[in-house]
Amino acid sequence: MAVRLGIEISRAACRVVQIERASGADEETIVRACAVMPAADIATALAPYRGQKASVVTWGLASDHRQAVVTTGRYARMRREAVSAARQAGIDTREMLADIAPVETARSQGRRRPVVIALARTSDVAAAAQRVTDAGVRVRSVATPALALMSLARLRGRLLAAGLAEAYVALEETCTAIALVRDGALVAARELEAGFRDAAGDLRSRDDVARTLGDAIAEFFDACGAPPSAVAQICICGGMPDLRSMTIALTERLDVEVEPLDSLFGIDADRLPAEDFREHVSDLRLAWAAAADWNAPINFLRERRRRVVKRALTRAAIAAGVATGLGIAWRIQQSAWLEPAKPAVKSRPAPRPKPAAAAPSSKPTPVAPPRVAATPPPVITPPRPVAPPPRQVTAAPPPAQKITPPAPSPVAAKPAPVPAPPPRVAVSRPQVVLTPVPEPSRPAPPRESQTQTPPRPAVTAPPTTATPAPAAAAPSPVAATPVPAARPTPRPPRPAPAEEAPTPFDASLGTILYGADRKLAIVDGRIVQVGDDVRGARVVEITPNSVLFRDRAGQLRQLSLDASRR
Q1: Domain 503-565 class, CATH top level
Q2: Which pTM does this prediction carry?
Q3: Which residues are CB-neighbours of 103 under 8 A, at least 6 positions away?
């Protein structure tokens, strides 16, 4: 059961009714509390209800109520058109709050439909709401007595046939409100500066009240174009002590059925707040109607509530977007923290290649190519005077040593067997020295029995006469090989290109998500991967601590986490 609070504030009194009613149900309401106190003691009357929301009915507002025909459409558009129609009818709509309520009739299904429009001065509505707010009660809606009478007609239901009009009257101590209602919709309304007490505060006689009220109702019907015979009945509520007797006199004067609203209609009679509640039920009808018709069709604070709700929804959407972004960033950061830390790979500058020798010199320059053939080329020595000298293979000497060809032996002229070449030395693969000769010849293939040994210093022939080799030593098969035509000296292989050193990239690196199945990075607040474009450069590689780009000029650029955290 929802607890609701209705407040009626007039010049003379403040009336409060607290009820319980199931939302959207038609059961009778349960009155939990009620109070009637002078208007000067409004703070005392509202003290028990601090912090609650209330629907407020305020007397004395500068207001106007009527019906207008507008084009069916959105609420804001129909409201503007209704206000424009009221302005054309001669009503000053400046500094006025306006609200409309569609009228459900058989004609409302077409392009044009009637609406009820109510206008009230902004300063008066604000002052009335401020009085209640100062007492600690939150104001949910503000209505005039005529709108409260329309809510009372809605709560009573259609007890009459469709299309018939009925009048509702609220009789106060010093003022009176009259409302003409048809099919639950307000047609016209008026407030009078007269009640059941005179200017001195004394009670007026019932005949005087009936005469004054009858004349006012007849004049009101004439202004609305509805004769008393066109009105089915008149319902009166208020705090007049002899209300039922006055209605009998009013019926005889207007010749229309007049019904006092002093019954417990819509109220659970078994659960009343006090024993004397039945005596004051007619006086509390407007406050009860404001609480029972919680979602009244017209509310002067509706436009303000629409702006407040729109502002709140906008702020909630912004907060939700920020929270979602922070959550995604936190998840990405958490997944990055769970990855094992890997050491940063520092790029080393490539070794500077050594320049090749321009001309042959006495001291050979060692060259270290990256790859060497299985059999290194041997060093060719000059031929002997007696016979074509065999080729000799020597080991790569240190840069400080020098290879000296052996001197010709005097016994070489004797018809002796050809001496064997000096013993061969195993050549290491990593380093080979080529000694230029006048007429290069084809290198001889190495022997199968030759094995690779660690490099040793080159063997230089002694300056004395060479000792002939034993007879068992077979001459080298290369000695009998004719010298082929000269071939160009093979060029040394080109050195490996130097590793390209990346240059810094001007961007903001948030974090890097690096794993076996995903490599992502947040650059300038955007999640990128290999192949994406960032500021005119393409992502070519993502490492645990940096992102590599290739700009339009083909230059390699780098964006690292260390540089972004500085």
Answers
A1: mainly beta
A2: 0.56
A3: 67, 113, 114, 115, 116, 183, 185
